[in-house]
Amino acid sequence: MNIKMILFLALVLLAETLVASFASFFLKKSSGTDSKVKILISPFFYLGGVMYVVSSCLSIVLMQFLPYAIILPLGSLTYVWTMFISRWLLHEKITRRKLAGIAVIVVGVVLLAVGQV
Q1: Residues in Cβ contact with 109 at an 8 Å cutoff, skipping those fewer than 6 apart
Q2: Is residue 47 exposed (0-12), middle (13-18) or buried (19+ Cβ within 10 Å)?
Q3: How far, in Å, CA of 36 to CA of 58, rounded?
Q4: Cα–Cα distance between 81 and 21 in angstroms, integer?
Q5: Residue boundaries of the structural domains of the chain
Q6: What pTM was estimated for this model as a whole?
Q7: How far is 27 from 51, CA to CA, in rounded Å?
Q8: Contact 19/54 with Cβ under 8 angstroms?
Q9: Residue 8: band (very low, low, confident or very high) from pLDDT cuts 50, 70, 90
Q10: In angstroms, rounded to a whole number, what is the distance separating the alpha carbons of residues 61 and 72?
Q11: Which tens digit of pLDDT belongs to each residue from 37-94?
Q12: Backbone dihedral angles phi then psi of residue 83, each to the nearest 5 degrees
């Protein structure tokens, strides 16, 4: 695999996981009510859904080049972005425990990625 292909796949992976994280954020934003009707008329609900579709399409692009057994664990980067998005937009605390979990995820992703190069 040449360097251009590696950079392309890294960029697609970054986009896929970031879009999935924002999709979850918008679905969370739409769920701020007990009324199912209000959820269904919320623009955040549809934005989150569209973003999940985009994320899935990017996953399909990745599947053309990498085994599924690699793509799915690499998708755990979504948790990293989600932690930062929830801190930034929802003002949630980042605890040491969360940071330790993120560190384990990042180490795992690096080990998987290095094994594919």
Answers
A1: 73, 74, 76, 77
A2: middle
A3: 30
A4: 6
A5: 3-116
A6: 0.84
A7: 10
A8: yes
A9: very high
A10: 13
A11: 999 999 999 999 999 999 999 999 999 998 888 888 888 889 999 999 999 998 999 9
A12: -60, -45
Which amino acid would we find at residue 68? Answer: Y
Q: Note whether 86 and 25 are within 8 A (CB).
A: yes
Give CA torsion, residues 89, 93, 95, 98, to 10 deg. -40
Contacts with 39 (C-beta within 8 Å, 6 or more apart), sequence order? 30, 31, 33, 45
Contact by Cβ (8 Å): 74, 113: yes
Tokens representing 59 are 């996953």
Considering only the C-alpha atoms of the chain, give the largest distance between any 2 of them, rounded to a whole number of Å.
Answer: 52
Q: Token pair for residue 45? A: 């609900």
What is the token pair recorded at 35?
């009324």
